[in-house]
Design brief:
Helices cover 32% and strands 24% of the residues. The protein has 395 residues and is of the alpha+beta class. The N terminus is likely disordered.
Length: 395
């Protein structure tokens, strides 16, 4: 059995026993409308903007942002430590993180190790725990991403970022604990060099990789986790043990956002670079039919699913399953999302109608931390904190 079915089976059993599954999964609703501009019970707030100056030394770049977010970052990391000690009561795992992980900081590619050091210094948190925070996203992200082209040839790229599966259920608030604690850390970042924007991103304070971003006028990029037996757990373990020929997924996406100068260059890098973990890279450009889902194993590209207007493919939509395979029935976000896209039609696609789709349960679920909407041609990135009121699927 692959990693995801086993994990979701366990989650479903726990949810059923604890009363989380209020309906037979998946809990679905009719396609929502009129949710944009965001308001109401699924809207938790706007996301603040910060600037990171790439001309500064890597250890200094994040200091201002972290100075404002260090309390929220400390609360989250303490919660993660509490979860770890609940499984390992002797606290040996925390001691290993605090003493052994910092010895590996020099193995991270430049500038990521130095930036993580700077974040640890600015937050006052142990270096190993900040490293652990940056590793989490290689193995725990569950998302929905879409690239769509309207009738005029304009491209839209959007995503829900879902995170926190298995990371502590809060009975009082009927939600995942880590998901709740991540929302105060969501930030929009304008990465600048020589006073000019290089790329923009929606990210988490303290996290130096990128999961969601846009290079103005050129391309947009999101990353979704791809579950596999040969998955991120294996890649991270190999890296710890000394095999380091693979690239961290989120470090690759940031490097592509920072350095690639075209849609085609970005597609090549995302397709051919060896990875620590399998992934889906969802890439959008600035010309008609520049949109694709790149399905990756750790070693090779398995498939590139592209926009193809002649054959009726005006959007590509990815959750966490290969697009040529059926999703698990208890984790089927894909079909409800695609139903809403078809109902909207290419004629009516916009920020508002895509936000409606991403607001429809179970595309919106208890793990959803934020929604980001991007338009490369308009040089526009909007991000919103999200919450899923009951009844709502746990994932």
């Amino acid at each position: 059995m692959s990693a995801l079915p086993l994990r979701l089976l366990l989650c479903f059993v726990v949810a059923s026993l604890s009363g989380l599954a209020q309906d037979v999964p998946p809990y679905t609703e009719d396609c929502r409308s009129g949710t944009y501009p965001p308001s109401g019970p699924t809207f938790k707030g706007n996301v603040s903007w910060y600037t990171v100056n790439l001309d500064q030394a890597p250890q200094e770049r994040w200091q201002k942002l972290i100075s404002e977010k260090k309390t929220a970052l400390s609360i989250l990391i303490q919660a993660i430590k509490d979860l770890a000690t609940s499984f390992f009561p002797s606290e040996k795992i925390i001691k290993l993180v605090d003493t052994k992980l910092p010895l590996l900081i020099g193995t991270l590619p430049c500038p990521f190790g130095e930036e993580i050091k700077g974040i640890a210094d600015a937050s006052g948190l142990p270096l190993g725990e900040v490293m652990l925070f940056n590793i989490f996203y290689e193995v725990f992200t569950v998302c929905t991403s879409v690239v769509a082209e309207d009738k005029s040839g304009k491209l839209y790229h959007a995503r829900n970022l879902d995170f926190g599966l298995f990371l502590g259920w809060d009975v009082k608030n009927n939600s995942w604990m880590v998901t709740q604690l991540l929302r105060p850390l969501v930030v929009n970042v304008d990465f600048q060099r020589n006073g000019k924007t290089v790329f923009v991103s929606t990210s988490f304070a303290g996290y130096v990789g990128m999961l969601t971003g846009m290079k103005p006028g050129i391309f947009s990029l999101t990353m979704n986790e791809r579950f596999s037996i040969d998955g991120g757990y294996i890649g991270v373990l190999e890296w710890i043990l000394g095999k380091r020929d693979g690239m961290w997924m989120s470090f690759l996406t940031r490097s592509v956002l920072e350095n690639a100068t075209s849609y085609e260059e970005a597609k090549t890098l995302l397709s051919k670079t060896k990875l620590l973990a399998p992934a889906y890279f969802i890439l959008g450009g600035n010309k008609s039919e520049e949109g694709c889902v790149i399905t990756r194993s750790r070693a090779v590209c398995l498939d590139i699913w592209e926009l193809d207007l002649k054959n009726g493919t005006w959007y590509v939509l990815e959750t966490n399953y290969d697009h040529w395979k059926a999703p698990l029935p208890i984790d089927n976000r894909r079909d409800p999302a695609m139903k809403c896209m078809r109902r909207t039609s290419q004629q009516n696609i916009s920020f508002g109608t895509i936000y409606d789709m991403l607001s429809t349960k179970p595309v919106l679920n208890k793990l959803t931390t934020y929604t980001t909407l991007m338009s490369v041609s308009d040089n526009k990135l909007e991000a919103y904190l999200r919450i899923c009121p009951d009844p709502c699927m746990p994932w």
